[in-house]
Write a structure and sequence with these properties.
By secondary structure, the protein is α/β, with parallel strands linked by helices. The chain has 15 helices and 19 strands. The N and C termini lie far apart (78 Å).
Length: 444
């Protein structure tokens, strides 16, 4: 029996895919099809895949051409698969000609001609791009503008800012005279304006029929946050909280490992996010206080792992002066029935920005800056048992966040990794800070 193997993403399965599988099938007696996993696609830079892995596998299975379907999950797997399945022929489209010649050492390599004029990229490109407007007074706008270029189905369509520096660097054709004018020329907005403005700007956008991606916190009060989500639901619009860490592969993998019991029962979480810079090199500039600039990011692993039902909390904040809510440093302790968590945030005070998740069998350590990590460790009492994990991160997670925003808008279903309960709890904690609830103030 002559075995043939081929690989692909098979996103939005089309006639070109089927013709390629038919040709591969004709090369032998038994066809193995490798479908690339979502994470492996990300590593290879393919972040605009529209369908999840299982849908793509079912699409290949439905053709009736594959005798066996496997999942491609890591670099170098092709050699392992060829050996494991005793493959005689490896085949792939001719657009990869020469790329896999190294496999000739293990089997015959055949490059098949592609069906002209048909590709998944072209199918995705046929959809009208979502016109995205950018709003705010921070250099983070430029990061989102740059990342839009990597996301199919998304087009930067305008900017509204009162920041003179940003106005001078942007093309005049993209600058809107007002927020209202911007809303008239876009389908969706990304907001990184001051948190005081989020509630009003989100409401105005939703009432104008626009989808919203808003830098966290969505609102400074829990009730306001809940009302905004209700308004979005009523109008069949997407409202998504922008914390790019939530979309980083490494962050999601450490959550899964922690929840699967790899370190036993989780008893404590310590998350630190601080910065001294105020020149746009940090998450947000000096206009944002610590609790708003870094608080949502630091709360994320706590609420994702322990949930939002803490029994008590204590907030200790160091203020610039008694007349201002600008905290240059805040520490929050959360108490749960069987666990505890602490976060430290600073916009004017510096500390080691690491994340530690402690369990009864071991702990997960994420080095600074943990919120955009590509690497973490699971450590045990016996160092010989320690495990290290590496995951590639493009665009600090912004790119993946934008892809999920586009998917949510196009499908009408939520693809976001921060659910409403977490968003509301983040707003609740920040509201308590401003109201002085559970708060002890320190003044420099």
């Amino acid at each position: 029996m002559k075995k043939v193997i081929t690989y692909g993403t098979y996103d939005l399965l089309h006639h070109g895919h089927i013709r390629l599988l038919e040709r591969a099938r004709a090369l032998g007696d038994y066809l193995i099809v490798g479908v690339t996993a979502d994470d492996f696609d990300k590593v290879r830079g393919k972040i605009n895949v529209q369908q999840p892995l299982m849908e793509r596998i079912e699409g290949v299975r439905a053709t009736g051409l594959a005798d066996e379907i496997i999942v491609e999950e890591y670099e170098g797997q092709k050699i392992d698969d060829i050996r494991r399945y005793h493959v005689d022929i490896f085949t792939v489209g001719s657009d990869w000609a020469g790329k896999f010649d190294y496999l000739n050492e293990y089997c015959q390599v055949v490059y098949l001609p592609r069906t002209k004029g048909i590709s998944s990229s072209e199918e995705r490109a046929k959809k009208r791009a979502i016109r995205l407007g950018l709003v705010g007074e921070t250099n983070i706008l430029s990061k989102y503008k740059n990342e839009c270029a990597f996301v199919n189905g998304l087009q930067e369509a305008g900017i509204y800012t009162t920041d003179k520096r940003i106005q001078e660097t942007e093309k005049s054709s993209l600058l809107a005279d007002s927020y209202e004018a911007l809303l008239n020329q876009v389908d969706a907005v990304y907001l990184v304006s001051h948190p005081d403005m989020h509630n009003r700007q989100i409401e105005q956008a939703l009432l104008s029929g626009k989808h919203v991606l808003c830098e966290s916190p969505i609102a400074l009060k829990k009730d306001q946050c809940r009302q905004l989500f209700s308004l979005a639901k009523e109008r069949h619009l997407t409202l998504m909280e922008a914390v790019k860490t939530a979309y980083a592969t490494a962050y999601n993998r450490l959550l899964l490992l922690a929840k699967s019991g790899q370190i036993g029962q989780i008893v404590a979480i310590d998350a630190v996010c601080t910065s001294l810079a105020s020149d746009g090199g940090t998450q947000l500039d000096a206009l944002w206080n610590s609790i708003c600039a870094w608080g949502p990011t630091a709360m994320l692993p706590i609420f994702h792992l322990f949930g939002c039902g803490y029994s008590e909390k204590q907030i200790i904040s160091c203020l610039k002066d008694t007349s201002s809510p600008f905290d240059i440093f805040t520490k929050i302790n959360f108490v749960y029935p069987n666990a505890t968590a602490a976060l430290t945030v600073g916009n004017g005070v510096k500390s080691e920005g690491e994340l530690v998740i402690s369990g009864t069998k071991g702990y997960i350590y994420v080095p600074a800056p943990w919120w955009k990590t590509e690497y973490f460790e699971i450590r045990y009492e016996n160092p010989a048992e320690n495990k290290r994990y590496f995951y590639h991160l493009d665009g600090e997670g912004i790119r993946y966040e934008l892809v999920n925003f586009v998917r949510s808008v196009e499908s009408g279903h939520s693809n976001q990794y921060i659910d409403q309960a977490v968003s509301e709890t983040i707003a609740e904690v920040i509201e308590d800070f401003y109201n002085g609830k559970d708060l002890r103030r320190l003044v420099l």
